[in-house]
Amino acid sequence: MAKESALARLPIGARIGVTVGVLVLAGVAYYIVFFSDISSKIAAAQQRESTLNGELQRAQAAEVAYQRDLEELARRRERERELNKVLPPTTEYPAFLSSVQSVANASGITLTAYSPQPEVKKEYYARVPMKLEISGRFHQIAKFFYGIGQSDRIMNIENISMSLAKRQDEDVLVEVQALATAFRTLEDESQGNAKDRRSRQRGGNQ
Fold first, then answer.
1. Which distant-in-sequence residues (6+ apart) come within 8 Å of 2 by Cβ?
2. Closest Cα to residue 159, out of 178, 175, 142, 143?
3. Can you give the three-state secondary structure of the chain, one letter per residue?
4. Which residues make beta-bridge pairs with 126?
5. What is the pLDDT of residues 84-111, one digit of tens each?
């Protein structure tokens, strides 16, 4: 007759206790081996997700700031272009003459001669003069003077001298000699001169 196992000889209550103990040990082993490893991976993934979300938010904020800076730069460049039309940083005699000729064409007068004159520098700007000889009817001459004042670039007319040229039908043609003056900024030159002065001062102090 086969011997009974030790478990078979135990009372039912003890056997149930042993079975429950084995199941508990198996559950603990499963938790240690499988669940705790999965749990740590989940926690690491959640931490990684949180880090990535933070980086994404910072990247989105940086992109918004970058786009805002681009828009501000575009606005400043547009303002600079508009200001350069009014008060350019260079003499630009050809552009000056082109502006005068455009006004002359719109006014119906004839620009018979022009002669650029040397710049006259002031503290913050330079006067860019040009002698003009024009001819036309009196109302056309007046329209030309008005158009010069309405030009995008700052210009004025001075030292005006008129003489009657001839009669044409019922109109009188007028010949005019005048000095048209445009202006340009000296901001860049002022900054350069200031840098030169600072450089000379540092050199003298050494």
1. none
2. 178
3. CCCCCHHHHCCHHHHHHHHHHHHHHHHHHHHHHHHHHHHHHHHHHHHHHHHHHHHHHHHHHHHHHHHHHHHHHHHHHHHHHHHHHHCCCCCCHHHHHHHHHHHHHHHCCEEEEEEECCCEECCCEEEEEEEEEEEEEHHHHHHHHHHHHCCCCCEEEEEEEEEEEEEECCEEEEEEEEEEEEEEECHHHHHHHHHHHHHHHHHHHC
4. 121, 184
5. 666 677 777 888 888 899 999 999 999 9
pLDDT in tens, 132-184: 999 998 889 999 999 998 888 888 899 999 887 677 667 778 899 999 998 88
> Which residue type does 114 have?
Y
Query: Which tens digits make up the pLDDT trace of 30-83?
Result: 666 666 677 777 888 888 888 888 888 888 888 888 888 888 877 877 776 766
Length of the chain in residues, anyone?
206
